[in-house]
Amino acid sequence: MIHRLDLGAVELPATHPRAADGRCPIFGYAIIHADGVLVVDTGTAAGHPVIDELYRPTVTPLVEALHGVGIDERDVTAIANTHLHFDHCGQNDALPNTPVWVTEAELTAAEQPYYTVPEWAAVAPARLRVAADGVAPAPGVRLLHTPGHTPGHQSVVVDTAQGSIVLAGQACYTCAEYAAGHVAPGDLHDDAWAEAARDSLARLRAFDPIQVVFSHDPATYHRPG
């Protein structure tokens, strides 16, 4: 079973490619598996002066969001960050002893200035699990490298008896873009990542998933028929 976690929202500044959207919702996900719960992304946190000024976040505490869908935080076996932008890793420390899966390329990207909030993106060595492409952090769950939005972005595939469910993260931004097989240029790490982003989206679509969910779009893609 997969639960969507409503982790708050941010106000997009005028310089953002999607500023016309106004508020941007932030979703994480909780995957219940045979050994416990895998949390995918932890949203933003409050109290950072630059983020508060630029993005005016509203924050739902991660533990509160888990309780809201009937999950005890003590049952969480791991966190997987699709990437390390501030609105995806901000509450990793809400579960301070929980392993965190992230790609090596993303760890490297997060070292660059202005990429993220460094203290939110930092993962203590004892918690860090470097995610190889296709690794299974939980039974029936795989992490796939899907670069484009960021150099080390990863998406999640959950295998079910009915077919695959994809947690796309920001491999594309909206459900409509996924259905069209389109990655908006404004969502790329930079223009050099356009081909990688298209390949990543094509890789996810090749699973012919029964459902696809996203980090910032409340809509869910359902396979036709």
Features of the shown structure:
27% strand; five-stranded mixed β-sheet; 225 residues
What's the arrangement of secondary structure elements?
Layout (H helix, E strand, L loop, with lengths): L1 E10 L11 E11 L2 E5 L8 H7 L2 E2 L2 H7 L7 E5 L5 H4 L10 E3 L1 H6 L8 H4 L6 E3 L10 E5 L8 E7 L2 E5 L7 H6 L13 H12 L5 E3 L7 E2 L3
Parallel strand pairs: 3-5, 5-6, 6-7, 10-11
Antiparallel strand pairs: 1-2, 1-4, 2-3, 8-9, 9-10, 11-12
Q: Mind explaining what this structure looks like?
A:
This protein has 225 residues and is of the alpha/beta class. The protein is built from seven helices and twelve strands. Strands 4-1-2-3-5-6-7 form a seven-stranded mixed sheet. A hairpin with a 7-residue loop joins strand 11 (211-213) and strand 12. The chain is globular, with a radius of gyration of 16 Å. The two termini are 22 Å apart. The mean pLDDT is 97.
- Report how far the terminal alpha carbons are from each other: 22 Å
| Tally of separate helices | 7
Helix content: 10-25%
> How many β strands by DSSP?
12
Subunit arrangement of the protein: single chain
- Mean pLDDT, to the nearest integer, reads 97
